[in-house]
Specification:
Bound molecules: 1,3-dihydroxyacetonephosphate, iron/sulfur cluster
Catalytic activity: iminosuccinate + dihydroxyacetone phosphate = quinolinate + phosphate + 2 H2O + H(+)
Radius of gyration: 21 Å
Structural class: alpha/beta
Number of domains: 3
Subcellular location: Cytoplasm
CATH architecture of the largest domain: 3-Layer(aba) Sandwich
Order of helices and strands: HEHEHEHEHEHEHEHEHEHEHEHEHEHH
Enzyme class: transferase
Function: Catalyzes the condensation of iminoaspartate with dihydroxyacetone phosphate to form quinolinate.
Shape: globular
GO biological process, one term: 'de novo' NAD+ biosynthetic process from L-aspartate
């Protein structure tokens, strides 16, 4: 049963002590998060990775790209473990290194490689954290950077200081919502479809562009609609609508606020008792916040439960399984199951892109 599994995990963690640290993303199931030493959004978890350099193992309860990032930012001796290897991210899979390289070559042919009078290169590549390590490596190698949903504006500002335009992947919505908030007009944000020549754009459209958006999206967040927001406002006068920036632009525009998972959690924590919130993000987080703050009314905008199906693939049975292997005997890990390692040929460049993000100042 879940209760017994929970007891078993607590005992294994007590045996392992400081040798292991468990990190958990906000979208994880409650049965998993109750064992996490740190809970956070994807930026906070990247930082938390570096907070326990003494730990032999980092058990990452999140998705594959987060575990790769943890491997890049942790010491080489530390083993990063993803309890279920099937926990990927469909958005991250929407941009692959071959298609991005092909896009880059077409852009280079169009714009050349010479900087303008202000020293700005033609294009800076920016990848959302939700991408493979290979794409982070691509960005590191080509003068680019990584962003998360909590620092996308800071990162785009960094990029515009160094480049005439940005190639943003994989999430079109985060790219569009952020650039729009910074005053970039929609007609200067063409979308790049890798199946078409010039991404399906004319040369003139690309010449005029400020942000070229990859065609990726999150299948969880694209379910939210303006109609859901309208219904929430009718049924709950005074409701505060907060959505994640992976939602489509019309939804972000219709909401009162948008922000990362941590932004959403903090907004609710800071609200006066008796507030009502309609939230546009993954259901596990919304349900946990609703349970944590019974003084508020908190509900998900989407009436049909929408979990992130890949985050959901990690449950406490997998956590118990990887911890059991670590407990071993004689104080040494008997076995490290499900270790995530980034290949050396991309790791160096990927770290450069991540470190640029960590150093970027608002
Ligand atoms: P944040 O935790 O950065 O808000 O990202 C949400 C998400 O979709 C992670 O995959
Ligand atoms: Fe990927 Fe969307 Fe799940 Fe986040 S919520 S891990 S972007 S599929």
């Amino acid at each position: 049963s879940n209760g017994e599994l929970g007891d078993w995990i607590r005992a294994a963690k007590a045996t392992l002590g400081d040798r292991v640290v468990v990190l958990g993303h906000f979208y994880q199931r409650e049965e998993v998060l109750q064992h996490a030493d740190f809970i956070g959004d994807s930026f906070q978890l990247a930082v938390a990775t570096q907070s326990r350099p003494d730990a032999e193992a980092i058990v990452f309860c999140g998705v594959h790209f987060m575990a790769e990032t943890a491997d890049l930012l942790s010491r080489p001796e530390q083993a990063v473990i993803l309890p279920n290897l099937a926990a990927g991210c469909s958005m991250a899979d929407m941009a692959d290194i071959d298609s991005v390289t092909e896009c880059w070559e077409q852009l280079e042919e169009l714009y050349g490689t010479e900087p303008d009078a202000d020293g700005r290169v033609p294009v800076i590549p920016v990848t959302y954290m939700n991408s493979s390590a290979a794409l982070k490596g691509f960005c590191g190698e080509h003068g680019g950077i990584v962003c998360t949903s909590s620092n996308a504006e800071t990162v785009l500002k960094w990029a515009f200081e160094r480049g005439q335009r940005v190639l943003f992947f994989p999430d079109q919505h985060l790219g569009r919502n952020t650039a729009k908030a910074m005053g970039v007009p929609l007609e200067r944000m063409p979308m790049w479809n890798p199946r078409k020549a010039l991404g399906g754009n004319t040369e003139a459209e690309l010449e005029n562009s400020q942000v070229i958006l990859w065609h990726g999206f999150c299948s969880v967040h694209r379910r939210f609609t303006v109609e859901q927001i309208e219904t929430a406002r009718v049924e709950h006068p005074g409701v505060r609508v907060i959505v994640h920036p992976e939602c489509p632009m019309a939804v972000v525009d219709a909401a009162d606020e948008y922000g990362s998972t941590d932004y959403i959690a903090k907004a609710i924590a800071a609200a006066p008792a008796g507030s009502t919130f309609a939230i546009g993000t993954e259901i596990n987080l919304v349900q946990r916040l609703a349970a944590q703050y019974p003084q508020h009314t908190i509900f998900c905008l989407d009436p049909v439960v929408c979990p992130c199906s890949t985050m959901y693939r990690i449950h406490s049975g997998y956590l118990a399984w990887v911890l059991e292997a670590l407990v071993g005997g004689d104080g040494v890990p008997a076995e490290v199951l499900n270790r995530i390692t980034v290949a050396d040929d991309v790791a160096g460049h990927a770290r450069v892109a991540l470190e640029r993000m960590l150093a970027a100042k608002p």
